[in-house]
Amino acid sequence: MRYLTFLLFFPAFCFAQSGSETILQQLDDRTPHYAKVAQQIWELAELGYQETKSTALLQEELRSEGFTIEAGVAEIPTAFVASYGSGKPIIGVLAEFDALPGVSQAAVPEKQARDGSNNGHACGHHLFGTASVASAIALKDWLKANKGSGTIRLYGTPAEEGGAGKVYMVRAGLFDDVDAVLNWHPSDHNGATAGSTLSNKSAKFRFYGVASHAAAAPEVGRSALDGVEAMNHMVNMMREHVPETSRIHYVITSGGEAPNVVPAYAEVFYYVRHPQMQDVRDIFNRIVKAAEGAALGTGTTMEYEVIHGSFNLMPNETLTRMVHEKLELVGGVTYTAEEKAFAETLSETLPDSKRKPITTAELVAPFSAPEKPYPASTDVGDVSWTVPTTALRTATWVPGTSPHSWQAVACGGTSIATKGMMLAAKTMTLAGVEMFSSPKLLADAKAELERRRGPGFKYEALLGGRKPALDYRE
């Protein structure tokens, strides 16, 4: 019986292993090329929904390798889907490429703005997109060499930073037929964790009043700024009466032009976060009521525009345990003497509480499935509620470096980042081979997703039916 079982298992085993060493070597051989691609996107540092050159660069990489490109999907000019192969299974790979405003930094270990740009890749999405493209091409080569059936599909997903690009793509049904999704993110360490994140919804609340001379005829005016401040006061009182794991942040983006003029227009930008998207919905609706009450009480009018909304991340332990095994197989990142000197100098600029040994980059953290969510939000959350999704992190930054910092931008323009990027590409490639080769793995992952979602789940985007906020960075 054991012999029969081996015979039944052997073809799939051979299919999974055949060519793996070859494609990893191909990734090594192409590392200089992919380093140049990532560097170009790092230098472009294009903001969300404005990534025209970055998306064109990645699309051309895939097109030249035989992928079919569908550009401008989900009413987003910079979004795209690249496909190779046919039939099932369909394995998706996510690729991001947007930068952040206000974090211009040169690739040096001390704070120094980069000439010609106010933006920077402080979350490493130039690496994210490039590694994902590299992995998709490697999986294409593996499918072709093994004459395997299945489809590799790379999703070019813009505006992760506050623009919720993936949400519109999920809402458009672009993930409906996918069997599993591979995803990764730059980090200061290597690991694969089956954890969650915070759900998030944001909106701009705009108040309209009546302008008047603030000294000569104040009784004629109706202050839009009063509307904003009344709203903020009520929301701040509401903080006592929301679940303690909630987060509410706001900034006044417009408060008037001059003190002696009653402001006719004012705007406040709100974020709401919670570990569960239903609580985000409920809290947000209460904030809307506060805004309506503020307008009524100040004699102004109010309208609001939802900017983005994303689900909390749905972990998939079935897939992530497998990814962790592949990550351990590939190993961590080892610095050269020059890279070590850069890392040590940059580490001195980090807060004492954040510093880690430089050798942390060589290690792979143990697998974990934490109950407490990571205190941030991502539009990958919506993907993960639709299709089994897994992720890993690799050390593209000096250990101890925080995302959205100038130190992250500095690391992103160096060979340290390239090494972490290619570690991610290799791990995703091995994980993709496993997915193509194991129907049981995919079936188990889908069963886990259905169990975690619960019966009767129907996807409804937090941002409703609004069109993509293509101008949110303008």
From TrEMBL:
* Gene Ontology molecular function: dipeptidase activity; para-aminobenzoyl-glutamate hydrolase activity
Q: Does the keyword Hydrolase apply?
A: yes
Pfam families, per this entry? M20_dimer, Peptidase_M20
The GO cellular component terms are: cytoplasm
Q: Which UniProt keywords apply?
A: Hydrolase, Signal
**Stored NCBIfam families:** amidohydrolases (TIGR01891)
What is the name of this protein?
Answer: Amidohydrolase
Organism of origin: Neolewinella aurantiaca
What are the top taxonomic ranks of the organism? Bacteria, Pseudomonadati, Bacteroidota, Saprospiria, Saprospirales
